[in-house]
Design goal:
The protein is α/β, with parallel strands linked by helices. 32% of the residues lie in helices and 22% in strands. It is globular, with a radius of gyration of 26 Å.
Length: 307
């Protein structure tokens, strides 16, 4: 009896099974990406690098496997960290929207328990640490490039305050590894003889005229002197052999808590590079930057690949 019932019901099972198999086949063919589409990451992802000083590297949704992508390293200020830098600079979101691989590493910890970059005695190696942060940043670039396809002609370095000091230190130490540098509220606190740049470097310097920590006109920090913005720009004009007169552009707005178009760009066109200064009228050391700031900086970087 049971055997007959199973036999009787068998054709009915096959009848329902056929449309199910068709549906599964349809989903298999059309729900999963084809070989060409599968090369694109439709969701942002990340990876870890840096060993004991671990860093999260953001891989943008638009990253195409096998196609070299730009890389941006973003350095925080003294007492900050990678997380605080992401919130301050607005560069993380801008990098993602431009399909740029992005990382904001942490400096090492000094005797006071604060994170810093060993850029100079002035700012901010106050306890004479022997840590080689330039070599560390270079190792990050090398490790990221080994795990992700990075365009060596579009590797950029940006920093705030102590991070900006470190950007200049790195550019003078390993200039051939980056296409352009940028930073806000720092200084080129390196003597010309100690800067080994032999080829022109694209440079973007951003500074507020009312910076109360790293003064626009230069000054001292714990009895250690640092140069003015004019002197910092002057060093790079000499390195890049710039002789053309500067061109002052139209002011634009990048600071939330200042009225109107508070930032004026001054561009120096050099034989094979660009040096540019963005002066923030009445800008403080840590201005409240708007979302357009990140996009402007990213656009500037992408317009200046290494030749």
């Amino acid at each position: 009896m049971l055997k007959n019932e199973r036999t009787k019901n068998q054709p009915m099972k096959r009848t329902y099974l056929r449309p199910l198999l068709v549906l599964v086949l349809f989903l298999t063919l059309f729900s999963y990406p084809t070989t060409s589409v599968a090369k694109t990451l439709h969701q942002p992802s990340f990876l870890f690098v840096g060993g004991s000083r671990q860093v999260i590297v953001d891989i943008p949704a638009g990253y195409l496997k096998g196609k070299p992508a730009p890389l941006l390293i973003d350095l925080h200020g003294y007492m900050g960290n990678g997380i605080s830098e992401k919130g301050f600079s607005r560069l993380q979101a801008a990098a993602a929207s431009h399909s740029i691989v992005y990382a904001a590493p942490d400096g090492s910890v000094d005797l006071n328990g604060d994170k810093f970059w060993n850029a100079s005695t002035t700012c901010c190696n106050f306890y004479k640490s022997k840590v080689n942060d330039a070599a560390y940043i270079k190792s990050l670039i090398k490790e990221i490039s080994a795990k992700v396809s990075i365009d060596p002609k579009r590797i950029y370095l940006f920093g705030h305050s102590n991070g900006d000091f470190m950007v200049y230190k790195y550019a003078c130490t390993y200039p051939s590894t980056i296409a352009a540098i940028g930073g806000i509220a720092g200084a080129m606190n390196i003597k010309p003889a100690a800067c080994t740049v032999k080829a022109p470097m694209n440079v973007l310097h951003i500074h507020g005229t009312s910076d109360e920590v790293v003064n626009y006109d230069g000054g001292f920090m714990y009895k250690n002197q640092y140069p003015s913005v004019k002197e910092t720009i002057g060093q790079w004009l000499a390195i890049d052999q710039c002789s053309s007169p500067p061109v002052v552009g139209n002011p634009f707005d990048i600071v939330v808590d200042l009225p109107g178009a508070e930032t004026t760009p001054t561009k120096y066109t050099c034989p094979t590079s660009t040096v540019e200064l963005w002066t923030i009228a009445a800008g403080l050391h840590r201005p409240v930057l708007d979302w357009n700031f990140g996009n402007r900086v990213i656009d500037w970087f992408l317009a200046h690949p290494r030749k």
